[in-house]
Design brief:
Blueprint (H helix, E strand, L loop, with lengths): L1 H41 L2 E10 L11 E6 L4 H8 L2 E4 L2 E5 L2 E2 L6 E7 L2 E2 L13 E9 L1
Parallel strand pairs: 1-8
Antiparallel strand pairs: 1-2, 3-4, 4-5, 6-7, 6-8
């Protein structure tokens, strides 16, 4: 009789240990999820101004300037794709709001950030808080 009681107590003990292990895993999962939420909420939203200059020989069409928000570390390409109708080729923007590069006529898109000419593609350019981006459509 005593052996049966010892076996029952042992089984109950093992079940208790197993259940406490599950509760630790559940609380750890909850803690991990809370930590991830805290990290993602620490990613700051930043702002930039994007405007356009059209220097075609024909009557230039106006492209609206826009104040945009983005997450820290976002590329100019990602921000442009989220806010404008554009086409790109190998990380270079080739068309914005339907105004496409015209290789035959020699018109291309270039851009400056904070009045500095940028020589990298939009995919490789990271925006920063309060950047002022100006895209210019002009003849080269």
């Amino acid at each position: 009789m005593k052996i049966k009681q010892i076996v029952k107590l042992s089984i109950l003990g093992l079940i208790g240990i197993g259940l406490s292990g599950c509760s630790d895993a559940a609380s750890k999962t909850t803690a991990d999820t809370s930590s991830e939420a805290a990290v993602s909420s620490n990613v700051s939203q930043q702002k930039a101004e994007i405007s356009f200059v059209n220097k075609t020989d024909a009557t230039p069409s106006e492209l609206p300037a826009k104040s945009v928000t983005f997450e820290e570390g976002a590329s100019l390409m990602d921000v442009m794709k989220e806010n404008f109708d554009l086409k790109e080729d190998n990380g270079m923007i080739t068309s914005i709001e339907g105004l496409a590069q015209d290789e035959a006529a020699g018109y291309y898109w270039t851009y400056t950030i904070n009045d500095q000419m940028i020589n990298t593609g939009a995919k490789d350019t990271v925006l920063k808080e309060n950047d002022k981006v100006v895209f210019t459509y002009e003849k080269f």
